[in-house]
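Lab manual, section 2.4: Encoding a predicted structure.

Procedure: take the sequence of the chain (106 residues), apply the prediction step described in section 2.3, and record the output as structure tokens. A sample record is shown.
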Amino acid sequence: EYRFGAELAGGAGKGLRRRLESANVKDWRFDRAALDVQIAIELEGGTWKRGRHNRPAGYADDCEKYNRAVLAGWLVFRFTSDMLASDPAGHLEPVARLIRERRAAE
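Recorded output:
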């Protein structure tokens, strides 16, 4: 888990809540992240159970987070638990390949 919102507010540490509010961001987190190449992976849980990610308020908050991430230069990959349960390598290997390619290009 990576605290993306904290990065937008100047980093974790003392005064984070105040800085988050001042920067007009929430304490957003990515499930996994390759910080050096700004690639994030999000697992959208509760797909079939009306979980937080697909109820109106949660969905809207996720959209705001993803849009702010893109504006900050991040590439965000989203997966459902079904996708990763049925074919984890098929879904994650292209992301891992992109991470390796971006790291090699630096």
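Check your result against the sample. Strands lie at 32-34, 39-44, 75-80.
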